[in-house]
Amino acid sequence: MSDDKINKISFFETLTLAAGFTIGSGIITLTGIGIAFTGKSISLAFLVTAILFLIAVRPLVLLSSVLPRTSAAYTYSKELIGNKVGGFFAYIYFAGRITIAIFGISFAQYLASLIPALNDPLLLKFIGISVLSLFFIINLFGIKCAAKIQNILFVLLMIGLLTYVIFGVPKAAPIDFGDGTFFTGGFKGFYTAVSLLFFALGGSYIITDFAPSIKNPSKTIPKVVVFVTLGVCLLYMLIGFVASGVLPLEKAAGMPLSVSAEVIFPIPALKIVFIVGGALGALVTTLNSSFVWYSNSLIEPCVDGWFPKLFTLKNKYNVPYILMTVFYLFGLIPILFDIDLTILSKIAVGLTIFSLIIPMAGILKIDEKYPEEWKKSGFEKKYSLGKRKIMLFVTYIILATQVIYLLQSNPPLSNLIIGVYVLIVIIYLNRHNTHNDRLNNNC
């Protein structure tokens, strides 16, 4: 067996990585916010979110099945739509990675809720920096090492969340559709909750960005995306049922799961299991996965010159260590200087939405640009151009509504920064292209 096959990650390792991308701090913090919008219909909101996500992400999953690529979303944007579009994606996506700072700080805050003596600004900084640094170092040893750590973390994560469900379901009040606790915010409140939860539940597509590192990616990726999304959806529905059922709605609304955990667990030790395995586990699995995700997503734009060539240097474990160090600094600087993480997270979500939308249009050009690969995939008869146009239209309708509802909930400053940044990128790309055209004309 070749070293290339030995170093590729298995179906199960891909599954746990995708679960790590999907199960993150969102379930801990956003469930209560979703309850504030729609009450006990939060569980139904999770189900609708999962269905809409699987429909919306189909073009990207289909592309990854036909063309497994490192930096998949960027490659599809560049090769199937245009070089300028690829550059636009790279810069939008790059700026959205500032979310990495949130994981370290959130980890410190949840740990302090377990150990009150740690609730000191300097100690919180130290803990946040330490956990960020630990997973940075782990990921420097390559994707195989990160995947092995992820397997262990995934088991602890599932133990923590399942503990919450097992002890919480018997204590949750049954849903009464006539007591006014269902659809409390009407359709607008319900769909706002769906939009809010869309990216809390929809992280499995990220594995498309390192398809070449996966064994048999054309079959593994679609299966993993569906399995993880539906499996996590079921878990989240149960968590939503518990969170909205063990406390009066006015006490559950807007609160993290640690609040409902106070009344669920009969002994303090079980609460510790939930916070360590569930809350902290959700954060560190996402943090661990993020270093892999970010680096694999942007290595090709670096090779193409959109970023300094220095970023492409790799260590003996095939890790682009300088690029990964940049992401480490993305996480470190906001922690050191107490930058408002709420504003940062809102900006990052907005930019993530834009970056997800961009490569989808490549599905219309796949047969034209890669006819042999398209024919060999077996999708030629199943997905005609007309069907792909309908698929893309539905995807854009779903994502457009998510954009509208999410940006409406953003602070004005976040939306202003997003708008200004996108405008700067467009101006730069136009000048960049004009400069290239001038050089070509002089040749």
Automatic annotation (TrEMBL):
Main location as per UniProt: membrane
Keywords of the record: Cell membrane, Membrane, Transmembrane, Transmembrane helix
Span of the signal peptide: none
UniProt entry tagged with the keyword Cell membrane: yes
Name this protein carries in UniProt: APC family permease
Keyword Transmembrane helix: yes
InterPro entries xref list: AA/rel_permease1 (IPR002293), APC_superfamily (IPR050367)
Entry membrane topology: Multi-pass membrane protein
Transmembrane segments: 12-37, 43-67, 88-110, 122-141, 153-170, 190-212, 224-243, 263-287, 319-337, 343-366, 390-407, 413-430
Subcellular localization, as worded in the UniProt entry: Cell membrane
